[in-house]
Design a protein that fits this description.
This protein has about 325 residues and is α+β, with helices and mostly antiparallel strands. Helix content is about 25%, strand content about 35%.
């Protein structure tokens, strides 16, 4: 039976969902997004699906603990095996007659696979309303921009020669991290990325920080339960109050030394003052720092270039 192309998950934001700043943590919201999008993709395709990309995540406001949360996933475009899904996370006070307002919105791309992991064709989705046609056009416009961003990300070099501030988390992928396909859940990987970026950002800001934007999560290969995981966050660029952070996730068999990249993402954090609002952060400007090297300067320019690409996509 053909799926509907839309799924809504509804639940309460629990105390264990709280983040490092006020409200629910950004990593937990990303987990919710991934689960809703997976439910939508699996419902439409009728088969198991894997996360290929999560991008243009904008956190417009925090979600208070105790709010009723609605995570709406709407299919907006299909390729041969891919499904482009817009996810909107809204919340509200459950005592206020179930009124919710948007807090986060993003685009997620899932790919349908068979039991051997090979891609399989999915049913074609066609828009039926003006709103759906508009959402499909927006998704198609972002395909080119996303490809350009991915090419720009792929050409950058990240080595131990860089002098930029870094934070590395290292641990074993536990059985509790498993998804429906026996690998580590994509939402869990995104939460790890958010944790490492928070450590890096807050360390540089010397105070609290909060994620406001995620440029994209690119998933290259599955991460296996029992493997050693390294989540490496590195500061690339700072604005008045913002910190642009690149995060690579690498994993491998603990009996071997090799660690392969499984996921790469770029996040923007802002420093928070005592009032919970953004506050100026000390600059990281490689061109003006004596011990910075060519790699640091190239990555700073790379972050600036990505800002221009995102701005062009929104114009």
């Amino acid at each position: 039976m053909q799926g509907t192309g839309a799924v809504t998950l509804r639940f309460l934001a629990a105390p264990m969902d709280a983040g490092h700043a006020d409200g629910v943590g950004g990593g937990k919201v990303l987990e919710w997004i991934d689960k809703a999008a997976y439910a939508c993709a699996a419902n439409w395709s009728g088969t198991y699906c894997v996360t290929a990309y999560v991008g243009d995540v904008r956190f417009s406001r925090p979600i208070p603990v105790g709010d009723i949360v609605e995570t709406d996933a709407q299919l907006v475009h299909t390729g041969r095996s891919s499904m482009h899904i817009v996810v909107t996370v809204s919340s509200g006070d459950p005592k206020q007659q179930h009124t919710v307002t948007p807090a986060t919105r993003c685009l997620v791309v899932f790919v349908a696979v068979d039991g051997s992991g090979s891609t399989v064709e999915v049913p074609r989705w066609e828009p039926r309303t003006p709103e759906q046609r508009e959402l499909q056009q927006a998704a198609l416009l972002r395909v080119g921009v996303r490809s350009e961003i991915e090419r720009a990300m792929a050409t950058q070099k990240y080595t131990d020669a860089g002098t930029a501030p870094r934070s590395v988390l290292r641990f074993l992928a536990a059985p509790t991290d498993v998804n429906w396909g026996g690998k580590v859940h994509g939402g869990t990987v995104m939460r790890w990325i958010d944790d490492a970026a928070y450590v890096c950002a807050s360390g540089w800001a010397q105070g609290p920080s909060a994620v406001v934007y995620v440029g994209g999560f690119r998933f290259y290969r599955p991460l296996l339960i029992g493997h050693v995981v390294e989540v490496d966050a590195r500061l690339l660029h700072t604005g008045r109050s913002s910190m642009h952070i690149s995060v690579h996730v690498r994993s491998g068999d603990p009996k071997e030394e090799e660690r392969r990249v499984t996921t790469h993402s770029l996040l923007i954090y802002v420093a928070l003052g005592a009032d919970g609002r953004s506050t100026p952060v000390r600059p990281w400007v490689p061109a003006d720092i004596d011990n910075a090297n060519d790699e640091d300067r190239a990555l700073d320019l790379h972050a600036r270039h990505l800002v221009e690409l995102r701005s062009a996509a929104l114009s």
